[in-house]
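Notes to self after the call with IL:
- keep both proteins in one doc
- input above output, always
- annotate only the second one for now

Protein 1:
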Amino acid sequence: MTGNAKKRPGLFTGLANLLGMALGLMLSLPAAAIEFDEVRDFGDVFVISAAAPARDLIEVSWAIEKEYYLYNNRFLQFTPVTEGVVLGEPGLPPGEVSYDDLLGEEVEKFHDSLTVSLPLLSLASGVDAVELRVRSQGCLENELCYPPTEQRVVVRLPSDGALGQPTAAALTATGLPAGLLGAQADAALAPEQAFVYEAIAYDPGTALVRFTAQPGYYLYVDKFEFAVTGGDGFAISAVELPTGVIKDDPEFGSVPVYYGQVEVPVRFNRPAGSATEITLEAKFQGCRDGDICYPPMDRAVAFEMPAAGNAVGVRPAPGSAPSSQAPLSEQDRLASLLTSNPAGAIVAFFLAGLLLAFTPCVFPMLPILSGIIIGQGARLTTLRAFWLSLVYVLAMSATYTVAGVLAGLFGQNLQAVFQNPWIISGFVLIFIALALSMFGFYELQLPGRLQTRLAEASNRQQGGALWGVAVMGFLSALIVGPCVAPPLMAALIVIGSSGDAVLGGTALFALSIGMGVPLILFGVSAGKLVPRAGSWMDAVKAVFGVGLLALSIWMLERILPPAVIMLLWGSLAIACGIYLGAMERIDPAASGWKRLWKAAGVVLLVLGILEIVGAASGGDDWLRPLQGLRTAASGTPAGEHRSFERIKSLGELEQALAQASVAGQGAMFDFYADWCVECKRMERNTFPESGVQTLLSDMQLLQADVTAHDAVDQELMRAFGVIGPPAILFFDRNGQEMKDFRLVGYFEPDAFSTHLQRVLAAQ
């Protein structure tokens, strides 16, 4: 990295035409002193406040972060905004006088804190609060100096009896339409005071815009629009809006907003050429908390963009490599890493597997492995538990690897084939049979003659049981966890595009081994901690039996209606509650443990009843059983989102995209399946979130339900190189896919909102 083009200090010191000191500061900074994203906002490191110990005295204070300091220089100014207020000379405590490397002169600095006394020489009648405009300048030790920055504070004065009513002049001074003035409109700021708009050049292809909403005011995230004029060949290519805070707004409902100061990079397509002056126009809208909404505002700032030796920010043609301005999807970054640095990528895939081990796709394997280990009974040792766990994980990993290589080579997801309802039902019956045997209803055993022969063989070798464990690992990989995540997709991209099955398969094996390490640790700990005999063993078996029943219900969720699943979860919880003694009386002399189990049983009993009540009231989410009752009471569907237009074939997709283009909209295309766990998490947690819904309102929502995985579904997935859900594709207003923005896997609402903002800015 060279120069200041890549540093945020260059942003602020780019105000050289306003500050004579800025050029010297830029030249004095180290080449890689601090990165753009590391610079904190002025208001975050110099936190301002004010108090009035008397009606004729105001004290303005700053809490200064460690390693930062404020200057006592000509930029330290205090200006009253409130009419009828005259300030005296500010009183400052003595500061630290030292030589400043950034400015090259002796200066007076204030570290940690600063309090300035401001006498009030004159105060108009009826004024009970004073608003001040405070201008100051500060620095980060030996790194950067901020430009002179304006902050505003409001301080309430001590009462001296009845105050006069606000005058008509005070009401009209805000510059607001009379219809927008509420009960407190006399204190409202003029629009240009409430919302400050600034813009400066950051590098030849980027401008940095800064909006400052005064305390008590906010800006709407979705109301920003930008346009550039005055620069020959300049066009906005992307606006990177940060994630806002979700607010229940009286005008627009739940919407993302900005409080305080926010900085927005605006990127341009531009030709090569000399320094050029441009004008950046911004449209935005904001409100004062609680009462006033301002009409949409238009502002414009003219500034000079630095010279560019080459054209910058131009998007590549379809099919070509993405430009430096375009984001690269996670799976594409991993695929690039795998081809450029295979050794390092294998380690990265192993670490990614460790993270995937804690997702809902891998959790269900815990009760399966537990059932295998507990089923060993008296023969169980720590060493045997290790071998059983290792064989299970190796079989699972080998299956993932082979299935992944086949998917990459032939575009066929073998795991999806095993999501047939009959196959899932058969697997569920096996789990139920194993669970009932653990409850002591019967013992799963072979006929006596065959047992004798197997026992004789087992005395000679211990491999027989391991083959059964390997088969269970094979089936678990295919049936229990058919999730598509970015690392898996990256390996499949490499296999499909290069045909290098060895490299892609090695990455998949490292990924699945990483997923299996926690399973091995769990299995070994179970082998060490599980009791060998006695009543404790029956209790432990019952616990793992419940785990197998829970796994069965979790798998049935893919093929049964939601209400039935809620009834099953409720029945299981009630049965567990009764087993723990929820319906039994407690002896007064009962131990603390006995009372604890009864309390747990009562909780499970109540939860089970809530599930059944929720199913009867129309609920469809076992994680929120009373959702149906809330919906009926409020009349508003809870946890729902805009409906998707269902797409079955390529022809239907092309028609829907054409309609979206006519309407001037982009589109989001979601691949979904009932057997996809992460798809259902997106449906429940991410899509209904209010901020996400606000952003999605600007897009056409399309969805392909590939649950059946028939020939039409497979053709549609092959057309876009999608191996399986969850996968979300985005299309611009011309109906072209924005491949750099493709998502694979589950995303939390905040991360998804941030991504949607980037998509909307680039559409």
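Protein 2 (the one to annotate):
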Amino acid sequence: MLSRLARLIIRHRVRVLIGALVVLVASFAYGGQVTSKLSAGGFDNPASASSLATRALDHQFHTGSANVVLLVTARHGTVDDPAVAAAGRALTGRLAATADVEGAVSYWSLDSAPPLRSRDAHQALVLARLTGTDDQVNTRVTHLDPLLGGRDPHIEVALTGQAAVSHQIGTTVRADLARAEAIAIPITLVLLLVVFGSAVAALLPLAVGALAVGGTFAALTVLASLTKVSIFSLNLTTALGLGLAIDYSLFIVNRYREELAGGAEPDDAIVRTMATAGRTVLFSSATVAVSLAALLVFPMFFLRSFAYAGIAVVTVAALGAVVVLPGLLALLGRRVNSLDLRRGVLGLVGRRPRPASAQGFWHRLATGVMHRPLVVAAGVIAVLLVLGAPFTGVRFGQPDDRVLPTAASTRQAAEALRRGFASNESSALSVVAPSSTGSSPGAVSAYAAGLSRLDGVARVDAVTGSFIGGTLARPATPATAARFTNPTGTWLSVVPREGVEPESPAGERLVHAVRALPAPWKVLVGGPSAALVDAKAAVGQRLPWALGIIAGVTLVTLFLLFGSVLVPVKAVVLNLLSLSATFGAMVWVFQEGHGAGLLHFTATGTLDSTTPILMFCIAFGLSMDYEVFLLSRIKEEHDRGSDTISSVALGLERTGRLVTAAAALLAVVFLSFATSGVTFIKVFGLGLTLAVLMDATLIRGLLVPAFMRLAGRANWWAPAPLRRIYDRWGISEGPAVHDGRVTSAIDSLPDVLARAE
């Protein structure tokens, strides 16, 4: 089929390229404003108890947890000085009068409530809630800027809280994305010149990359009109768009030049390239797309958005590689090697492809590994297990202000709250009883008193007053009581004490304790800590499904491609081993804080619960990408009649330089994202860089040759029923070479180790 497609593209090359140019221009014109269509947030499970509590507070009680905190500092004296108090009350009034703000209260409006004053009495808090969806809140928080401006002679004002932090994370990520692109694209172009040695050939992957990014921007714009799509998915779009376009183009262009070097005419070289490298690209893209599609099983639209973006960018990159790129090659013909830079410094690497031989580095490496496969395999596995060991102590959390740089204004204000105040007012849990009509004040007071006695609770506010340590500390006023009740129900605010961070194990323990305390009605517990508990539960429940989808589809796809039982299993196992080492390194660095000063981040003792899942799906897909390229060349040599040692050595020689170059180029793209000021984007960039490089070196260069040598002829074995399925439904480049020894090789597995030696 791909051969017929190639001939069709060759005949209509000009029309294909004109159509591609029109699509490219239209995609950027339509999708150029995609950032304005995308959403912030998306880290919570919308069906969880915490989300239901938040919606009940909003729709039924027209209130909710404070997402805006103004930190007020007295320029002179204390916050109780008359002039400072007057300025504080005026600020509270201006905040309450701001559009879309409700429930504005402060230390001064609540009769000098002690929890809202710092221990040194120089600072006090103003709390409020911005109404609306996550996107509306993200926009409306900028309307509070006038409250921070000017120079009041008595007070200084700083803004923090969930709404302000989320907005600053989004603006920081957008600026980081532009910087990452400015870093990655020039370096990538230079490396492409080094790899190809020809300026014309080096520009081809960038053309496919532009098409992939533009097409995905347009696809995300359409999707954003139908469902919520996270703004953070743009990072994946740019990284994978460039990376996969480079990967696919690198293999196709190199195979085309290889065929030309072997004496083929340009049109024949394109047809043969599409039947071999083009087929491999389609299967590789399918494995990446399936890995990313597994993110759709999770309920958080943050993760689902990466599936949308990933599937779109993989699809467009693959189509660009097998449709647009052959058209460009047909137009260029032998001019693909024009503007040859081999005579200069680039000639060290950028030479034209040459036939694989026993003289090449990768051939010698594979042969050396296969002389001592057990020693090599044991040594590499030991290294990977040591690297992966820290992952056994992973602790998951959710992003807070500390993912921002230390210079970020919202983070500085939040740090001042941690240092100076005895409770976490902005991190209160909301205990909602939406159907508690007729509850007596005594029942409410008894329940509130019980909550206030829980370990980690500083105060409980309810319709009957504020409770501390099991006793009523402050009776409710008519104004405060009205906040906590309506004709159908009531709710209570549970304020954590100092040291109980919302995104911490202590915060999670508090949620479990509150939910375990018997209540006189059915209650829903919300708040930042509750959202973390529910998000982790959702991830834990859906993770087996995601892993099962990835593993199952990968095994089936590789079987249909190679007709082997052992090769797909080996590929999955080795990829899992490699990824566990990557995750262990991320725990050691970002959770435990090793290198925090060098990488400019703050270790909080946790990793974002969604980042490892996202990294796993992307890295697993990319690992299978390289696996398919390598195994395709090995099987090609095997089907020509080569034995295991020869086919593995020749396959690695033909792909080793390309896989390494592709991994290096992709690593540059991912590493540029590690320059981000936002910690979880830094984890994403550095983690994927390590995963790609480890896979291209330790796995492809050492473990794959060692395992294939140990398995010998059993590499290509399948039981008779599966062999019949492969013969009927499998996809191969041509007539496969199957002799009786291959199908019976499994019978000699006890002799495998002896043969290896």
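Annotation: The first strand starts at residue 68 and ends at 74. The longest helix spans residues 162-196.
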